[in-house]
Specification:
Length: 333
Amino acid sequence: MNAPIVHGGGITAAAALHGGRPEDWLDLSTGISPFPADLPDIAPRAWHRLPDAHLIDDARRAARGYYRSGEILPLPVPGTQSVIQLLPRLLDQNRRVAIAGPTYGEYERAFRSAGCDVDRIDGLDAVRDDHALVVIVNPNNPDGRIYAPDRLIGLGRRMAGQGGLLVVDEAFGDMVPESSVVPAVADHPNLIVLRSFGKFFGLAGLRLGFVVAARPILDTLEQALGPWAVSGPALSIAASLLRSDTSAIGAAITQRRDALIAVLEGSGLRICGGTALFQLVEDEVAGALHAHLCAHHILVRKFDYAAHWLRFGVTADSDGDNRLAKALQSFDR
């Protein structure tokens, strides 16, 4: 389990194996919005200087308003992946961890690499009294499962009663703000919420995320990350976009999700889950279909732990829809 995990987005490797220029491939293997947000003006000093405290504070205040974290100022981090690597530091040695899955594999890898015992659980009811930390991805990647906030808050109370922590990863939560537990963090100091910035805003290259948690936890993570963990330009962009009207972004993503569903269902594929940014398909010949799409220079996400699954990200426009539909319809079962 400690071997590197193959994620989506490997266009360079796919092109090397199947031919074509990487820029000519249709990459549907990630859950990133195909609409990069328009970048705001960035002051030259943000590029010239190390990140000043006022830039950090401004981004944190903007994140507080966007994520509705109340009195808590979310901590900007260089991508939530950086925090996943640090989570084991919040535990005493030889403590058990539960991860609701199948889900994003880096959680299990990080905890096992740190020597923790990890249990894969299939739902909240499987959490045991000896679990010191529980990870829930909500909405889940890759099946889109969503737990209602009251259920998660109830689990958080239970974990607090046994001296444990609850980590809720809301990387795909921007499109379902009603499902977020961020507003509850101020009243639950054992609750840690991770939020991705790049997925919804289509700016994954910024490597930016936010953590919402009680001050002692944020202090521990901030110290572990070290000074200047997030660049000045990234902080400036976040402060501006998190205060902007994001309704057009949400509407565009919804339209693209609906178009993707129409293409997949029109091609006879069975959708078994998903979010606004991806759809999960279950098919007994998923491996052959993946290879077929690669031959047409279309990359989707396959899973080593579920050979019958493929995850399709949303396309950017009708041209992408048509290209995907044509490739799917030419697949010979």
